[in-house]
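Students often ask why inverse folding is considered easier than folding. One informal answer: many sequences map to the same fold, so there is more than one right answer. In these notes we will look at a single instance of the problem. The structure comes first.
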């Protein structure tokens, strides 16, 4: 096998099985990396995981119902696939496998330890010596024995229909005949070693328990409680990172809420208050843009009001229609301008000219100014258009143009088209307000 270690990707709910498997593989001589076993006290948790993942040749992925829903696990696997690393999935219990991972061959531990470890040995390309140390016939490692029992107990399926005790008895019977004396000597030495070196490992790891409880709660108070007790603990750096992230998330949420309140008000004062409270905030460009629009809109409103006051000062149809057509203002009073025309205008009929294939003849009375989509001076007018008179003329009382009004429409006056008489005929009669 390569000297690059195997990286374990798993859910914290499966930590007991994963640690047992990692220890068994280490006993057998396989190089593995597991966060709970290999991150040094004081090291940054995220940096250590990233470095280990980069250095790993293969990723051992433990699939359970909880791991398939873990974003961290999915991120690690996606990275491994993108970087071309070997992915060795272990199926510890039946679960809904993500579609992109179903193409991988699984090492199935849901039936028995024997079948699972045999498939895993092949998947990891371990040599025969290592594979033998992981087999059910091998009884030289405590972690391997514990792993066998754990897999059988977890799945409720006993090898060959055996009970757990029977399985251990069978493994014991498969030992070499001369195993007793060496094992007794080793056992005696192990007891002494345990008494001297292993007592701390047999004790409850209160630091780890407190750390996992803080992660489970995932609140500012939980992280602060951990740090108040284990300020120099082996997980202190990671808890500090988590606390900082939690603080950052809370600040982001506060800013988002403040921005929502700002936009709900939507005036210049509200945007300036946001800029005062969040000078480096994420919505500073939006606030500045909104203030600029408000200022620009204020200037536009002032210009529009000035133009409207000018129109009011003329007290004429032409003045109101000039305002209505003015494209340089925002036209806040356009509807009001038409109402004023309706109130003060005289109404009459005029022969506009000949309709020559959709165009008015050159001797027409009016030039078309607006407001159709395609404007040309000699176009046939429509209702709502504004016309410029080319000649001073008397208007008529009706569409027959037999009886003149006493009023005239003067050259260069603007008029509003109210009606077109026989628009499809050659003679175009218009009813106008002037």
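Output (designed amino acids):
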């Amino acid at each position: 096998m390569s000297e690059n270690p195997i990286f374990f990707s798993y859910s914290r709910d499966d930590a007991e099985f994963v640690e047992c498997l990692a220890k068994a593989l280490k006993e057998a001589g396989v190089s593995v990396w597991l966060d709970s076993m290999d991150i040094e006290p004081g090291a940054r948790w995220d940096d250590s995981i990233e470095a280990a993942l980069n250095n790993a040749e293969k990723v051992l992925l433990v699939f359970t119902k909880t791991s398939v829903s873990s974003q961290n696990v999915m991120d690690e696997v996606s990275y491994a696939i993108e970087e071309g690393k070997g992915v060795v999935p272990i199926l510890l219990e039946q679960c809904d496998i993500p579609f992109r991972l179903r193409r991988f061959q699984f090492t199935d531990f849901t039936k028995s330890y024997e079948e699972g470890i045999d498939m895993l040995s092949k998947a990891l390309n371990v040599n025969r010596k290592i594979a033998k140390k992981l087999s059910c016939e091998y009884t030289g490692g405590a972690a391997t024995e514990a792993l066998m029992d754990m897999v059988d107990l977890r799945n409720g399926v006993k090898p060959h229909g055996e009970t757990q005790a029977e399985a251990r008895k069978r493994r014991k019977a498969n030992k070499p005949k001369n195993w007793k004396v060496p094992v007794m000597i080793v056992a005696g030495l192990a007891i002494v070693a345990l008494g001297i070196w292993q007592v701390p490992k047999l004790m409850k790891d209160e630091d780890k328990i407190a750390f996992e409880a803080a992660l489970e709660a995932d609140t500012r108070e939980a992280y602060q409680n951990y740090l108040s007790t284990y300020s120099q603990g082996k997980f202190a750096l990671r808890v500090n990172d988590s606390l900082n992230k939690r603080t950052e998330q809370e600040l982001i949420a506060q800013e988002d809420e403040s921005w929502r309140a700002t936009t709900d008000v939507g005036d210049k004062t509200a945007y300036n208050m946001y800029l005062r409270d969040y000078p480096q905030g994420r919505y500073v460009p939006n606030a500045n843009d909104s203030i600029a629009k408000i200022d620009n809109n204020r200037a536009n409103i002032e210009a529009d009001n000035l133009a409207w006051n000018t129109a009011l000062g003329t007290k004429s149809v032409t003045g109101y229609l000039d305002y209505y057509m003015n494209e340089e203002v925002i036209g806040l009073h356009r509807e009001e301008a038409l109402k004023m025309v309706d109130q003060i205008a005289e109404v009459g009929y005029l022969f506009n000219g000949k309709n020559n294939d959709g165009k008015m003849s050159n001797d027409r009375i009016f030039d078309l100014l607006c407001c159709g989509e395609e404007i040309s001076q000699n176009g046939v007018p429509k209702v709502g258009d504004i016309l410029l008179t080319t000649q001073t003329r008397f208007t008529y009382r009706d569409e027959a143009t037999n009886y003149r009004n006493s009023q005239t429409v003067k050259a260069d006056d603007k008029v509003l088209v109210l009606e077109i008489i026989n628009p499809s005929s050659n003679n175009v009669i218009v009813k106008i307000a002037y």
